[in-house]
């Protein structure tokens, strides 16, 4: 397995302007990661995304750091003012960016779900035909460019392991799979090890993160904490410092002979660089266990 990091881990620094996307490439290499994954590239003023992607690829090549995945937002129900064809075309332009970056995989969201104003059923099964149509159109386009597409267990509505499994199996295309985020299963109150085991046959890429957890019956812990769909508390932590059963997840990966990328997503309140570095050290020890 290769150990990577998502540029999302550095987002606290890129949002404030302390780091640029080029700086993220250099720092990732300095920190000893094998590969880098880009998530929603911050654009300098006056730059277009395709042209900037060319610069990022050249920078990564100059320091000897492969960019392996590109992660973007999408919403096949509500995006582009609810026009599915327009949203699919918008995501295809992001596939073009992925090709410029030189990656072999791209993750796009499925949907955040129906709006309160939606008339009719709001279940996942009601949304499935539209999601399948959009995901299949995107992955067929991407396949011609040599890029595999994925959805992540992300965003509550399409986050449960059975839902992402159903979506991928219904799309039924060899170029379409899952980016499995072990921590995100917590957000819908699933056991990460059990959920990861379910989606492994369809998994192209893996995110590792860790959370501090408190039951919803406990006193609300205040700033920095979030609520799961079932009302339990979670907060991002350094990998190995939290309560996600990471060793169990590693054993699931090994039993399934997974040999792809495991990317760190750091969401903790600690110092960004230190948190990422400690997380990498702990992840390497976990994978060696």
From TrEMBL:
Could you tell me the superkingdom of the organism this chain comes from?
Answer: Bacteria
Record bears the keyword Membrane: no
Q: Which InterPro entries match?
A: IolE/XylAMocC-like, Xyl_isomerase-like_sf, Xyl_isomerase-like_TIM-brl
Key word Isomerase present in the record? yes
| A molecular function (GO) term | isomerase activity
- Xylose isomerase-like TIM barrel domain location is 27-284
> Which keywords describe this protein according to UniProt?
Isomerase
Q: What SUPFAM superfamilies does this protein map onto?
A: Xylose isomerase-like (SSF51658)
Q: What is this protein called?
A: Sugar phosphate isomerase/epimerase family protein
